[in-house]
Amino acid sequence: MDTLLANLTLGFSTALSFQNLGLCFIGCLVGTLVGVLPGVGPIATIAMLLPLTFNIDPTGALIMLAGIYYGAQYGGSTTAILLNVPGEATSVVSTIDGHQMARQGRAGIALGLAAIGSFIAGSIATLLIAALASPLTALALLFGPAEYFSLMVLGLTFAMVLARGSVLKAASMIILGVLLSTIGTDLETGEERLTFGLSALSDGIDFTVLAMGLFGFAEILRNLENPEARAILTTAIGRLLPSREDLRKAIAPILRGTGLGALLGILPGNGAVLGPFASYSLEKKIAKDPSRFGKGAPEGLAGPEAANNAGAQTAFIPLLTLGIPPNAVMALMVGAMTIHGIIPGPQVMTRNPELFWGMIASMWIGNLMLLIINLPLVGMWVRLLQVPYRLMFPAILLFCCIGIYSINNSPFDVVLTAVFGLVGYALHKFGYEPAPLLLGFVLGKLLEEKMRQALVISRGSFATFVERPVSAGLLIVAVVVLVVAVLPAIRKGREKAFQEE
Amino acid sequence: MEESGTAKGIPQDLGAGLFLVAVSLLALWQGADLDAGTLREMGPGMLPRALAVLTGLCGLGVGTRPFWSSEAQEALQAWSLRGALLIMGAALFFAYAIRPLGFTVAGPVAILLAALGGKETRWIEIIVFAVVMTAFCTLLFRVALGLPIPVAPWLLDY
Fold first, then answer.
1. What is the pLDDT of residue A490?
2. What gap in Å lies between CA A106 and CA A179, rounded to an integer?
3. What is the pLDDT of residue B109?
4. Cα dist. A217→A204, A400, A414, A473, B117 in Å?
5. What is the pLDDT of residue A87?
6. Residues paired with residue A192 on neighbouring β-strands, in sequence order
7. How far from B39 is each of A148, A452, A455, A469, A494, CA to CA, in Å?
8. Could you tell me if A489 and A168 are in contact, meaning their C-beta atoms sit under 8 angstroms apart?
């Protein structure tokens, strides 16, 4: 407990420096600004805003990025509530009751509840991260290559099961992602693999290039196809602060949502996406009058919003302690950290304690800032929602191009991004989800490295993965998860859970 | 907008499967002369080849879904190639123009090209917008953030 306090003190003293406070504020602000735009999800937002952080020291840059991430999440819920357009899978649930509240003239209350719920969830999740960071890091140091390999396999299995649509198609995307990650120079022999003779590919595909192509560019192409189905907000926002009565009713759902979201967020393989769904069904199940749900029930908004934010935050735990990103957004954070010369993993906490604890402390500060800056600025966000897409998409494209170009000052990266933009568009037409591909790509390099290390240690025997107890346990869980997911009875339930999308 | 690329009624998953098979063949061809090594000492070619084969198998699985799964009956939608090509063309122009011509050319032309790929283009509006955005981005990225983006090398050496 003492060390936890000492660590948090170190963190807050880092995060509260004038510069870092400013960066956190700017991050939250621009994150919300871009995240609020309909059709721009958190992945595209972070990728687009990455260049803003290039000339900052690593601690400040990560604090700003974390701010951008929460801002993007928060902006997504605003769009979901006001326009019924979910920016990403996790804010789908917010559109159900949140948008109904907005239609009934309670848009302000809905936004206020979402903000307060997110803040409470974020505060609890920050504490949880701080408490779990040390023990999990200690655990991670005991992991050998075989355990790491099996843990990643488990993570990818979760990602496969939790993706929308067919499990086979999600599996295909993960394998394709891992295949793409093998492009470039071989780790051991230095031979070039699958580079098509292009020297620009010898370092492999840059993660941000892939992310920006599949999400930034491809999203533009997809959005352009759908005619602008923009529900124009006719009702006024109204008062923002919920009444004491509203808050009293919402607090229990918020706490339950926080618990669910935080737990699911820690799971490897994008468990966070389940949080809002789980919270919504729980609230509906225990409500005295379930028929109110879908017609603007505040509990149906506050709980899932809290779950969403808690999960968004605890998703940092596997990244910071094990170095394994649990979802595509966290994978992008890996890319961002690598640009600043930091390899995420258990060593970060011991080698860069100010960075590690400063970032954790800034998570809480960021949540507080979001609460303070967003409510008064709601009017501005609403006005931003009225910018027509015909102006927005060329601007998004330009920002993406500048961002990609400035990562390595490489025009070829922009070309490659355009290629992946077309690939992303094709994937969409073929009914594939790009998020598992991205995760497979990021984990692919680590997966190969750990697998080859483990096989060198075991002298080429694959038995090592099942002989070591921890590794075997992780693989058994992976098999169980997969079997359960393809069993017909459970498959029906899974479809139902995703049906509301 | 012309819609091209597909005839009506091709099952979506058939196309999806063929796509994976094509990727798999491409990877197998590219990795053909890489040494696979043995399990004890894996060569550089082992994983790419194994993954390419897996991708191909997934492709076969997905591609045949319309014939065995009742859930996979959706038809492939039409593609709007004009928008896709113009918008990706805008990015390509940006890539090739940024070094020799600088941002003052690459920026506005990319915006105009992209706007052409949209459904409605209002010329005066988009031209004004392109100029304003170029100025804004120059100030933000070059002046304020100090990123080394060539602005107008042919004019100012900046």
1. 59
2. 49
3. 94
4. 20, 8, 11, 40, 13
5. 64
6. A185
7. 19, 9, 7, 22, 38
8. no
- Substitution target in A23, A30, A55, A169 with the highest count of B β-carbons within 10 Å is A169
Q: Which H/E stretch holds residue A119?
A: helix A107-142
Using CA coordinates, name the residue in chain A closest to B77.
Answer: A429
Task: Find the helix or strand (DSSP H, E) in which A348 lies.
Answer: helix A347-351
Confidence bin at B1 (pLDDT 50/70/90): very low
Question: Model's pTM, two decimal places?
Answer: 0.85
Complex ipTM value: 0.89
Whether residues A179 and B23 touch (CB distance < 8 A) is answered with yes
Residues 6+ apart with CB under 8 A from B87: A217, A220, A221, A224, A393, A397, A421, B113, B114, B117
Nearest to A173 by CA among A422, A428, A448, A400: A428
Rg of chain A on CA atoms, in Å: 22
Question: In this structure, are residues A239 and A109 in contact, taking their beta carbons and an 8 Å threshold?
Answer: yes
- Give the pLDDT means over successive 10-residue stretches in chain A (501 positions): 80 88 91 81 82 85 88 84 73 82 84 90 90 83 87 87 82 93 83 82 86 87 72 64 84 92 82 83 85 85 90 87 83 83 83 86 88 80 80 89 88 94 93 88 87 85 87 91 75 56 40
The first and second tokens of residue A42, run together, are 């958190």
Strand partners, B79: B4
Question: What are B11's strand-pairing partners?
Answer: B75
Gap between the Cα atoms of A143 and A432, Å rounded: 34
Pair of tokens at residue A271: 């468990």
How does DSSP assign A59-88, residue by residue? HHHHHHHHHHHHHHHHHHHHHHHHHS--SS
How far is residue A12 from each of residues A208, A355, A358, A439, B34, measured CA to CA in Å?
30, 11, 6, 32, 52
- Do A435 and A224 form a contact (C-beta atoms < 8 A)? no
Task: Note whether A96 and A294 are within 8 A (CB).
Answer: yes
Tell me the chain A residues in contact with residue B15 when contact means C-beta distances shorter than 8 Å: 429-430
Closest CA to A402 of B144, B141, B108: B141
Best residue in A56, A64, A168, A172 to probe B by mutation, most B CBs within 10 Å?
A: A172
Angle at which helix A244-266 crosses helix A299-314, to 10 degrees, equals 40
Longest CA–CA span in chain B (Å) reads: 66
